[in-house]
Structure formats: structure tokens, C-alpha cells
Request: fold
Amino acid sequence: MSFLEVKNVISGYGKIPILHEINLHVNQGEMVGIIGSNGAGKTTLMHTISGLLPLMSGSITFQGKRIDQLPPSDIARMGLGYVPQRKNVFAELTVLENLEMGAYTLKKQKEKINEMLETFPRLKERIGQKAGTLSGGERQMLALASALIVNPKFLLLDEPITGLAPQIIQGLIDMIVEIRDKGTTVIWVVEENPKEVLKHADRVYLMDSGIIKMERTGKQFLEEENLEELFLGH
Ligand code: ATP
Reply:
């Protein structure tokens, strides 16, 4: 039994399907990359798995239980943490208040917040600053910390390093790899610099126009001579 099983999933907006019969699985402890060009449907897939977007047909199973009819809050409570690409922090709240929001269901809130501040020392320095005024990299760290605070078993990361300064990217990649190495299962959505993710991903799905076009190991994709062309959907 796979940790996550997406079967024949069709979903979209209004009556228009964007995902056409998606099939994929994620094993426990894996880091799985979802790559594909702009508009391939990667974000739509993340919204569908996390329960934000209803399915038109198909099924999604997480740890053996159907989740495709559940509200996002129930899916989150089962251990799925979702870090969207945009609007992933409360801009008007401070760093501390954001972490408190992330931790509000926990008993040992202070302890967990302190743990996150140890892991992300940059956030500790900016504890009283409003999230909307953080740099892109700091905001991404805060989004990650807010998701990690509840110890999710499974983390969906939508383009966590896109658009960030090169000097901050490596640090974030190392952190995400460490999270996987400590046992959290990860889906990492990539649009830019796929090579950085392919190096670390156990398996990778290439999406194009709402379908899964290819599945390979990260290493196989790295060795693919026509990677750029494949990626751009030519
Ligand atoms: P990007 O990284 O550019 O967001 P993506 O692979 O994540 O690319 P999606 O955001 O999932 O792609 O978009 C897939 C398709 O769904 C696009 O054609 C987009 O225009 C359409 N789409 C996305 N959100 C909506 C929405 N709220 N209503 C209608 N169509 C949408």
C-alpha cells in the first residue's frame, strides 16, 4: 500500500477539467518531484490532494484512507502539511504570531515555537517583524516553519525556492533534504531549476497539460539529454 495514491483523478475549475486522469503514488519516506512548465497543472494537483479543490472523478488515498471527500482541515489533521507557492504566510501578522497560528492546535506551543526558532535562526532575529515585510527567502522559511510546527508526516511544497536569491536557495534545499532524511515524506513541485531538485528526488513525475507524461528516478532525469526539451513540453 502506498502512502499516497492518486487514481484516475480528474479535477479543475467550474466545469472545466484541468487534470485529466492523473495517476501517481508516493511511498512513505520518499521525496517525489513534480516537474513541468508553466500551466502544466502542478498547483491544481496540489490543491486537489490537499482538499482545497473537489475532484470531478477518481480517488485519493492517504495512508490507506480515502481523503478525496474530506475538508482540508481533516486532511491536515491526518498529517498532511501544505505550503502553497503564494499567500503562504499571514502578511499582517508578525513572525511570532504566524508561528502561533501554526501551533494553535498544539499543547506544547511555546516549546515547538522555540524549536522552530532554533532550526530557523533567521526567523528568531525577525520575531517581531510583520511577515509581509520579510524577504522572499525569509517568508519561505516562515511558511515552512509554520507547516513543520505540527510535525506533519507528509509535506507538499509548491515551488519553495522559485524566485529566491541564489545564496539562500542552497540553504533551503539542504533544510528540505534534511526534513526528508529525518523521515517526513515530501512532494516538491518545481518549475525553475529542476536540476537542483532532481539531484535529491527519489522519483519524479513530469506533468504537461494536465497529464503525467513521464515518471523516472531523479537520477534518470538528470541523465536525460533532452531534459530542457522534455521540460518545456516540446
Ligand atoms: P504555475 O506554476 O504557472 O502556476 P502550474 O503547473 O502550477 O503552473 P496551474 O496553476 O495548476 O499550473 O494551472 C493549470 C491551468 O489551470 C492553467 O491553464 C490555469 O490557467 C488554470 N487555472 C488555475 N487556477 C484557475 C482558477 N482558479 N480558475 C480557472 N482556471 C484556473
Remarks:
- The mean pLDDT is 91.
- The first helix runs from residue 42 to 49.
- DSSP finds ten helices and ten strands in the chain.
